[in-house]
Design goal:
Oligomer: single chain
Radius of gyration: 17 Å
CATH class: Alpha Beta
Strand content: 5-15%
Number of helices: 10
Distance between the termini: 42 Å
Helix content: 40-55%
Number of domains: 1
Strand order of the largest sheet: 2-1-3-4-5
Shape: globular
CATH superfamily: SGNH hydrolase
Structural class: alpha/beta
CATH topology: Rossmann fold
């Protein structure tokens, strides 16, 4: 069994290189279905390979599972998965202009794991997280934000791991955003819930991650009568 903290930080690094920014969508003739989707409010997931669903088939990432859960609940939201494998918090900050071209009602922010894996400066990561949230607030003041916490590698020293862990709730408190501690709670370190690399959740693991995120996400959608 892989240590829980090892999984938490290594999870986003396994892709060979950070992916390039996705190409801009090609315009297509409008259809009734596409027009309907365009009118739906968006939930944007910004993240690493954990969000992208590295190693899973299309439609199996945890944001995809959440999209199906929302549909089953009658929630009319368009889920956009903007996960990029290997991305650091600085990388996420640098691609915000592209990410925020489309208005979102809710933004789930999962980044920083690769900072910890590489032993990058915790204060710099924290500054990046604050800057990302501040930029979202300026560009899309209507968007509600859910910050997802991560864990650091134990071999980075206990002091580093403690500072890393503490940075996420501190940012959430400073910026007044919703906070979910540790995305992989209940999944990291469990062999049967992860792929052969012992790092990325398998299909069942992704389902459990989605179930962990849903209670933190639903309140951001507002009272049912307003949705």
């Amino acid at each position: 069994m892989v240590p829980l903290t090892l999984l938490a930080l290594a999870a986003c690094e396994r892709a060979a290189k950070p992916a390039a920014h996705p190409a801009a969508p090609v315009a297509a003739a409008p259809t009734n279905d596409s027009a309907s989707r365009a009118l739906r409010p968006t939930i944007l997931f910004i993240g690493t390979s954990l969000t992208a669903g590295l190693g899973l088939d299309p439609g199996q990432s945890y944001p995809d599972v959440i999209a199906r859960k929302l549909d089953s609940l009658g929630e009319n939201y368009e889920v956009v998965n903007a996960g990029v494998s290997g991305e650091t918090s600085a990388d996420a900050r640098h691609r915000l202009d592209w990410l925020l071209k489309r208005p979102a009602g809710v933004i789930v922010l999962e980044t920083g794991a690769n900072d910890g894996l590489r032993g990058l400066d915790v204060d710099s990561m924290r500054a990046n997280l604050v800057a990302i949230i501040d930029t979202i607030r300026v560009r899309q003041p209507q968007a509600k934000i859910l910050l997802v916490g991560m864990e650091a590698l134990p071999n980075m020293s206990k002091r580093y791991a403690d500072r890393f862990r503490a940075a996420f709730p501190a940012v959430a408190k400073e910026t007044h955003v919703a906070f979910l501690p540790f995305l992989l709670a209940g999944v990291a370190g469990v062999d049967t819930l992860n792929q052969g690399d012992g790092i990325h959740p398998n299909v069942r693991g992704a389902e459990l991650v989605a179930a962990h995120v849903m209670p933190a996400l639903l309140p951001l959608l507002g009272p049912a009568k307003e949705r």
